[in-house]
């Protein structure tokens, strides 16, 4: 298992206890993945310990729109993280389940990975290359001018636009930046301005609600741990779930989950001052 070094930040002081510490108050955890537990193929310090301590009492809710739960569980297990597929709630896969539930007979144009293409077929969705009723945009590493032209054609012909997640980037190994679905969305919206995009991933409620369902817990009994104030914190606050942030951003409660495990801070319930409760992604 490869680990990365913790950022050289000072130990955060214990916060005034407006409520019991987060570990005393939490019966279950909703965990972010990229930037919280891993960065690419690197495991962040404390991730394995956190998952071990909270075994059976966590779900990982991620804006990942490349993998399925089955494929990602295998990858995480290879990194030494004992994560089962039923503990993973992923934006791309859940977007397809959403379409299968609510639009089962619609023709779907899907821009996404081969794993998502196979998932769509397994759900019985009708995937087309033209004349679509719905366009679903996910993280498509093969995105190019031809794809942009095809999507533009479908949207100008009246197709509905759904998007797995709006993140512009996610953290990669060694401080690298990985382009995300939101960056592709910006290119598409430049071609069809005014198009309404239904973004299904965090901070929208769908993934968080599925996480609560799998934990079989109420929002008051759950803590969200993530690294992004505009997805993890915002989504949690909107649903009344307490949250904590890790990383080297200004609003972080600890530099990584290893340090968070030793902290006695209470959970937060409101957004940090100056953070706008909108749909902008960082």
TrEMBL record:
Q: Which domain of life is it from?
A: Bacteria
Under Gene3D superfamilies, the record lists:
HAD superfamily/HAD-like
Coiled-coil ranges from the UniProt annotation: none
Signal peptide region: none
GO molecular function terms attached to this record: phosphatase activity
**CC annotations in GO:** cytoplasm
Listed name of the protein: Haloacid dehalogenase
The species is: Bordetella genomosp. 4
- Read off the lineage from the record: Bacteria, Pseudomonadati, Pseudomonadota, Betaproteobacteria, Burkholderiales
